[in-house]
Amino acid sequence: MVLVMFALAGHLFGQERDFSQYNFAITLSGGWQLVTNQASRPGVVATFVDAAKIRQLVLVVYDHQASGNLDDRFISELERGMESSGAGKRVSGRLIEVRGIKSYERLGNVMADGRHATSLTQVVPVQGRIYLLQALKIEGEASDDPEIRSLLASFRFITPPVAQTGPPPNGGAFRTFLWAGFTLGIFGGIAILRSLRKPPMSPAQGR
């Protein structure tokens, strides 16, 4: 009986997934699954979708040598790059703290194949790395979704990292990779959700 209760508790409250090579872990709610049949994309560590196939979480990590504070210049360049790369119009943006690290949260609107989606991205800069937590919801508000918020809140570092210090990073290659990661996460995620929602082909269709 005790074992059954623990099993039910794990199903209801989720299980932590450990990505030790990238120094972080995240707890998934019941029904969220790892997408295993996606093409490799730069910086993308893992992609998860919910049971209804309308919500997605992409975890992106970029290693870099530049150091810098998350200041107005960084955010301005980040926003300009996101919009010019087709990542959608910003609805809002704000500074937040993620596990004690000064971070940036962005809410955006995205259109794909005539369908509206919202994106909620948290950018967490630490010494030597940039973490992007990218949530997407098809035809719904990602920022108001309690499961998405719960997933993002469960993100933790296995070993406390060092926050970035010094002048902001200003290398073109660094910005290009960051913007590309955001765009790939959003549009790659829409493609994944679209493919997962397609009904399976009948034997006659497959001939």
The CATH topology is given as Protein Transport Mog1p, Chain A
Q: Structural class of the helix and strand makeup?
A: alpha+beta
Order of helices and strands: HEEEEEHEEEEHEHH
* Number of spatially distinct domains: 1
CATH architecture verdict: 3-Layer(aba) Sandwich
- Taking pLDDT < 50 over at least 5 consecutive residues as the criterion, the unreliable ranges are 1-12, 199-203
Write out the CATH superfamily name.
Mog1/PsbP, alpha/beta/alpha sandwich
Terminal Cα span: 50 Å
For the CA atoms, what is the radius of gyration?
Answer: 18 Å
**According to CATH, what is the class?**
Alpha Beta
> What is the share of helical residues?
25-40%
Shape: globular
Q: What's the β-strand tally?
A: 10
Record the strand order, biggest sheet. Answer: 3-4-5-9-8-7-6
Strand composition percent:
35-45%
> How is the biggest beta sheet arranged?
7 strands, antiparallel
**What is the overall number of helices?**
5
- On the 0 to 100 scale, the average pLDDT is 75
What is shown here, in short?
Helices cover 31% and strands 35% of the residues. The protein has one domain: Mog1/PsbP, alpha/beta/alpha sandwich (Protein Transport Mog1p, Chain A, 3-Layer(aba) Sandwich).
